[in-house]
Amino acid sequence: MLTMVPGPDRLPDSLPTDRVSASGKLRPDIREGLRRVDGRRNALTVAGAWAQTFGVIAVAAWVDRWWAFVLAFVLMGRGFALLNILGHEAAHRLLFGRRSVNDRVGKWALAYPGLVPIDIYRRSHMAHHRDEMGPEEPDLGLYRGYPVTSASLRRKLTRDLVGISGWKNLKPLLKALTKPGSRRPAGEIVATQAVIAAVLTAGGGLAFGVWWLYPVLWLAPWMTLWRVNNRLRALAEHGGMIRSSDRRQTTHVVRQRPLARFFMVPYHTGWHLAHHVDAGVPWRNLPAFHDELVAAGWITPAIEYRSYLALWRALSSRPAEQGLATAPGAAAR
Description:
Elements: H1 28-34, H2 39-63, H3 66-91, H4 99-111, H5 118-130, H6 140-143, H7 150-161, H8 164-176, H9 183-201, H10 213-223, H11 225-238, E1 253-254, H12 258-263, H13 272-277, H14 286-295, E2 304-305, H15 308-315
Parallel strand pairs: 1-2
Helix pairs in contact: 2-3, 3-4, 3-10, 3-11, 7-11
C-alpha cells in the first residue's frame, strides 16, 4: 500500500551521541540553553505581526484601488498565519516568561483576533503532543487516510476556499454564545472582533471609514484563504503519519524555503519535527535544534521532502484506480 511513513531502512539507528539521545532529546545542559524564552524580542515580534496584518488593510485603504484590496485579501491569508502561529507559541507558554503576560497577550492579541478559544485549543493541542495519532488525537480526522487521490485533495481545498470549512469552524463559536458554560469565552472573542470591526469602519484616527473592510478583508480571508493555508500546513506536518514512539514516523520533515516561510510557515514553525521532539523549545531556537538533529544523523536527507510542493504531491499520490499500490515507504518524493 502507499504510505507516507518512513520505513526502517530510512531511519538509521545512529544515536546516541555525546549531544543527542537515541530519541532525539538534547543533552540537559544544551537543552536548557535552547529552552530560554526571549520575552523582549517576542514583544517586538507580536507588534510586528500586528503591523503586517493590520498594515496590509491600512495600505489598501490608503491606496484605494481595486487591485490593492485584492492584494490585501490575499495577504490576509498570511496575516492569520502570523497571528495563529504566535498564538500556538503562547498556547505552549513559550512567548513570555511570565505566565500571566504570556496568557493575556496570547488570548487578546493573538488567539481572539484569529477567532480561536485559546483555553480549549491549549487542551486539545497538548493532547496532540502527548500522543500524536493516538486515540486521543484531536486532529486524527485531518491527518489519517493519506495519501489520497489528487481529486480528493482538490475537493477538500475547494471546500476551504469557498468558505464551507470556515463556516464549519465559525458555527461552534456562535452556538457557544447560547450556552452558559461557554458564553463568556465566546463573548470575549466576539467582543474582540467587534473592536477590530469598529477600528476598521469608524472614522478618524487609524480607522478608514469603510464599512465593508471588516467583512471583506478580515472575516472573509479567515473563512477562505486561511483555511486553505491551515490545511496545507497541517497536512505537511502530520498527514498520513502513524502513532509511534519515534517522532520521525509521526511528523514530516520539509526543507524550508523563503516563499513558504513567508506565506505559510512563519516563525520557524516549519521545523516541526524538532518542535515535536521537544515542545519546550521556543520558536527562535527550532532551527538550531533541527541542526543538532541533522548533525547527529537523526534527521537525514532520506526523510526530508525537498519542498512543500513535493510533499503535497506525495500526499495526493494515490491512484484513482483501486488496487494500484507500491511498497511500504516508497511514496513519491
